[in-house]
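Archive maintenance. Older records in this collection stored only the sequence; we are now back-filling the structure field for every entry so that each record is complete. The fields below show one back-filled record exactly as it appears after the update. Entries are processed alphabetically, and Amino acid ABC transporter is next in the queue.

ARCHIVE ENTRY
Title: Amino acid ABC transporter
Organism field: Mycolicibacterium murale
Length field: 439
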Amino acid sequence: MKKSTKVWSSAAAAAALIAVPGCSGGSGGDGAASGGGDPLVVGMLMAFSGPTAVEGAEAVNGCLPAEAAINEAGGVLGRTIECEAFDTKGTASDSVPAARQMLSTTDNLFAVIGPSTAEAVAAAPVLDEASQVMFSPAGDGRFDRTELDHYYRLITSDSVGAQAMALHSQREGFQNVALVFVSGASAQANIPPLEEALGGLGVGVTEAMTIQPEQPSYRTEVARLMQNRPSAIIFEADAVTAGTFLTELNQAGGGDIPVVTNTLATTGEWQQAAAAAYGGDENLARALQVVVRYAQEGGPGTETFVESLQSLEGQEGIDIPSFRDSAYARAAYDGVVVAGLAATKTDSVEPETYNEAIPDILAAGDGKTVVNSYADGVEALKNGEDIQYVGANGEYRLNEFHNVIGAFAYYNWDPATSALTLTDQLPADELEALASGQR
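Back-filled structure field:
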């Protein structure tokens, strides 16, 4: 994935500004014994450089608002929170050294945001072996049934996202579709569950094509696709690749074919490239269909996150327009808040100890007090109440594998505002049935 130069420049600056000097030693001691001690570090083990650097920006725009909210409420057991960036460069080979460096040199490591899709298979077991709680945005389907005790995914699996695009295609009445996905672990992981879901829903596939990123031309691939003109194209590619491919698709007479895509299309650079490829917003609106995890509008947990994010306006790394509605930034925020509440509940900042409280804090239950902010959660816990945290992304219904399915929605392009606009939510029961293999 690529983000606009403006956003990435801010995120890079933030990574430098928020870095906490590493110290030898492991995580900090028990909270009751060390209240008011050194800051607790939230490690952002994400890509801050390379083609998936937008993921680091998402982490920054979730972690920093959580840091601000927690510290304003008095910290975790009297200790402040600080976010520190550890650059995986978006590769498995770089993620393991980054994870080991984080574990060995960061005093008071409290929780981790990450690793993401390209790095999680390699890096997540390293963190779990160290009993380190992590909140990962990795879409890799291999984590759908993970046995890692300290792994939490508050974002839906890529396989569910792929199934959502398949369900949308059936609901739109597409008889056959072409699949065009850029090479790379994240995009390629979508193809098997997508093909399986499309087949189960009775939608044919005319072509399943993998394209290399950022090539000077895709005319050969476009010509092959147009030989069996599909009802729609299910598409995933970064902004540069999308700009070139969609331009040549239009030149070949395919500008009226609906293009169904996913979260990459929520970034400003991607949208600008697509609008240019279609010759303007009006033409783009006739083709673009974006199916992504539904980021609820309103609700006290969402409003609390947005207020905290907005309070940081002007700070390096903060990009309010790009990330206030990002389910990924919100999940990072909620992860840090939940870790803080779990530490408060167990009276310990040790991840191995507070980990046991996380599922209960997210679970609904009779007699529980619903809280939507860290401050309210701490107050309720101090009053001896049993709590359920409903946060920036709403309610998290964790399954036994620490995963959520979540809600998905269809957005189209509004030429009047040059922005995505919510069109419809996908039926949650149908998506859950598809994801569980019961449809």
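Update note: The first strand starts at residue 40 and ends at 46. The chain has 19 helices and 14 strands.
Entry marked complete.
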